[in-house]
Amino acid sequence: MAPHAEATLMFWRGLLGYLPANVVQGVAGMLAIVLFTRVLSPAEYGVYALAFTAMSLGHTLIFTWIEAAMARFYAREAGSASLADHFATLYRCWLAAALVFGVMAAVAMVLWPPSALKAALAVGLASILGRSLIKLIQERRRAAGEARAFAILDIIQTAGGLGIGLILIALGFHGAGAIAGSGVIAAIGLLWALPGELRRGRGGHFDAARARAYAAYGLPIAASLVLAAALATTDRFLLALYLNDTSVGVYHAGYSLASRSLDVIFIWLGMASGPALIMALERGGMDALRINARQQASLMVALALPAAVGLALVARPLADVIVGPALRVGAARVTPWIAASALFSGVTVYYLNPAFALARRTGLLLAVMAAPAVLNIGLNLVLIPKFGLDGAMWSTTASYGLGMVASFALGRRALPLPIPVADIARAGAASLAMALAVLSLPGHGGVTELAEKSAVGSIVYVLAAVALDLCGMRERLGGVLARRRVSLA
Length: 489
Hints:
globular
């Protein structure tokens, strides 16, 4: 089988294998908004949002470089005699990072004044250790193409974390309980997942040269992700500084409604595309990579663009259904802007930025993320005091737009990935037709309006996409119908 065909097969198998986990992720993400915005007060939900943000930043800062090295170098080491050294080196690096992190977290908690936020932060920081090990295990499984094993563990972590979090909230732990659920289920998952992973490093030895190579590759990625996290989270801290925890809760609800909806699409595609692109490049060179990258980019645009437009169109009825009464009006105002931001971010992170990892020029990622991160902080400092929530969402959208442009421009210097201009235009035209159809419908509010607009929008988009031959849909559909006729003959 040709390398590009082998990579294409791996991609589509990955999409099917990772689909159950992403469905659960999407459902759990929406349920978290539905339930947490109802069982927590707006201020408690704001505390949860701040603690979750701090937990994500801490994880990214200390542990992500190890996960990145696992994902990138596993394919090269798989099947070789040095595979055990690969695992031994990475897990010893994790242990050293965990010791450093433990000292930093302890000092931070000693210095932090007593408050509800301190309790939630303490729980979030403690949860990072288990969550980072689970993530390291998952990166190994993803790199190995073990989609089923990945999906099982991911589903357990997602559903279990939500369920345990709700139990802890009911027991009176409030925002800290919502955070603790993910840490508890990670610890439980490690009891059965970690021993098998550690056995892979049995007989292996720590290799300082490997560790330096892994750090040289992974630390720029981690640094860029810290900047990306700052871009995605600075607004919450500044809202808390200039306004209050309730404003953070309103903003986080609308932000989560949009970003989690689109993240389901982007993360699903990213799980399958990353290993497939690495395989295409390693085994077939640039020609195979370009073929696979173009196919994946076209599919990404065909799915994500209408999803972002659709979220903006149904923001109010979606918030009526999903978000608690105290937060839904403000959340509906935030959602359309964050839908655009999430689209820009998803394209950047899951298609444009991988060019730097594939070319092993991860240092350029720092330049890509520095500009939008600095812009976001500057705009928030200027706009939040004057415009409140509106200032935060305007700043976020502008910053992510700049990040996408910067990634595209610098990516051409590292490893130029194809841009499917024709399919972007087709998806845009089909999305415009969908928007015109949805905007012509009356607004009833609630479930009725959401169902009507979602159904009409989906039907119009699919019909327009077929008519415009988006992603070669007419040819594919014709092939399916031809095979159907043959089978019935």
